[in-house]
Specification:
The protein is of the alpha+beta class. The protein folds into two domains: 3-199, Ribosomal Protein S5, domain 2 (2-Layer Sandwich), CATH 3.30.230.10; 205-371, Alpha-Beta Plaits (2-Layer Sandwich). The protein has eleven helices and 13 strands. A six-stranded mixed sheet has the order 5-4-6-3-1-13, with helices on both faces. α3 (128-143) packs across α4 (150-165) and α4 runs antiparallel to α5. The protein binds alpha-D-galactopyranose.
């Protein structure tokens, strides 16, 4: 956790509202493997990280509630009895969405003030939005003693994303951000929404994220389109979700669907298998295999599921000739954001220099590189 941002929101809150707030830290996440499998009720392997949202919250006697985005220096004031999604509302919609979903459960909230900031680069595929939603629902739950369990809170966050941000996301991001464990990854079954914790120790290797610093426009509609394809084929197969599909069953309907849709569904079936193999390799400390699964996952995301882009492909391809890197793949929804790389610790510095230079040369644009720690989930600080 970044203590500096925690202190910043605390200080800013006290100077604005002359009272001591509750402070929540809610982390972003990485995902080791299992991409686009969550809304297919399949398996994912995410972890919470040491970057996140720090949020200060306290009750207010005023007739309105307010949220101050410290690092953007933007304020939003609103009445709790007129919550609506805002057009181009950006960060505001995550907060309003959470409030609306809480209200839908029949709870009448009283007014409050919030100051928040964060250190997750936005659009990097590290789930700053899930961290935001979780920090708000967790803060309100504490402040007004609403009695929600963590499990209920992540569903509220997810619905906020569906209904106010318009992305029909799965449960991975909200789950990882809420339930993350120190130095661990979570093998999450997205059907039962229960996870098994895996201690992660890559020995001489470490994770490195490389941000393309691009987010292509179509990412949200393309995400919802992918989900629609999976649901359509599930109906055809007469199953609840692609989690239940087999390659054999898919083969049988191959002539009834387009080659494109066939490949997408095949990717989901294979990625679910890879998550299982990956967790087995973690348990057996078989680091070399891990890398191979990462590369296979990227290939599927790029060629079959078609959610990569030239910048992500370039970063992944650039690692292939490098013997110090075991594997790499795009991470998150796609169309930009980060790649996740498993690299020999002693060689990370040298590689950072090389890749920064070649990325700049190729795209006339800087990439950003982050080392992260696997950390605890959403909490009061
Ligand atoms: C986004 C969504 C998640 C998940 C990933 C892809 O991060 O919010 O629910 O679907 O994309 O794995």
């Amino acid at each position: 956790m970044n203590k500096k941002i925690v202190k910043e929101v605390q200080k800013s809150f006290i100077s604005h509202f002359k009272t001591k707030p509750l402070v929540i830290f809610s982390p972003g996440r990485i995902n080791l493997i299992g991409e686009h499998t969550d809304y297919n009720e399949g398996f994912v392997f995410p972890a919470a990280i040491n970057k996140g949202i720090a949020l200060a919250i306290q009750k207010s006697n005023s007739k309105k509630s307010s949220v101050y985005a410290l690092n953007k220096d933007e304020i939003h004031e609103f009445s709790l009895d007129a919550i609506q999604p805002l057009e181009n509302g950006g960060w505001r919609n995550y907060i309003l969405g959470v409030i609306a979903e809480i209200q839908k459960t029949g709870i009448e909230l009283e007014n409050f003030n919030i100051v928040f900031t964060g250190d997750i680069p936005s659009g990097a595929g590290m789930s700053s939005s899930a961290a935001m939603e979780n920090s708000v629902v967790f803060g309100l739950n504490e402040l007004f003693d609403l009695g929600f369990s963590k499990q209920q809170m992540i569903l509220i966050s997810q619905k906020a994303e569906h209904n106010y941000a318009g992305v029909k996301c799965g449960i991975m991001d909200q789950y990882a951000s809420m339930f993350g464990k120190k130095k661990s990854g979570l093998l999450l079954d997205c059907r039962t929404v229960a996870s098994v914790t895996y201690k992660i120790d890559f020995k001489n290797y470490k994770l490195l994220l490389i941000n393309t610093n691009v987010k292509h426009d179509l990412s949200e509609s393309a995400y919802n389109d992918r989900r629609a394809v999976c649901e359509k084929v599930s109906r055809l197969l007469n199953i609840n979700a692609l989690r239940d599909a087999t390659k054999g069953a898919l083969e049988k309907v191959k002539n009834d669907i387009s080659e494109d849709d066939y490949q997408k569904c095949l990717y989901i079936i294979e990625e679910d298998e890879r998550v299982q193999l990956f967790s087995k390799a973690i348990k057996e400390e078989n680091t070399a295999d891990l890398g191979a699964y990462l590369y296979e996952s990227h290939k599927g995301l790029s060629k079959q599921y078609k959610v990569s882009c030239k910048e992500l492909d370039f970063l992944v391809n650039s690692t292939k000739e490098n013997p110090n890197i075991l594997g790499a793949r795009m991470m998150g929804g796609g169309f930009g954001g980060c790649t996740i790389n498993l690299i020999l610790k002693s060689q990370a510095k040298k590689f950072k220099k090389e890749i920064s230079k070649s990325y700049l040369k190729e795209f006339n644009k800087e990439c950003s590189i982050y080392s992260i720690k696997l950390s605890k989930g959403t909490r009061k600080v």
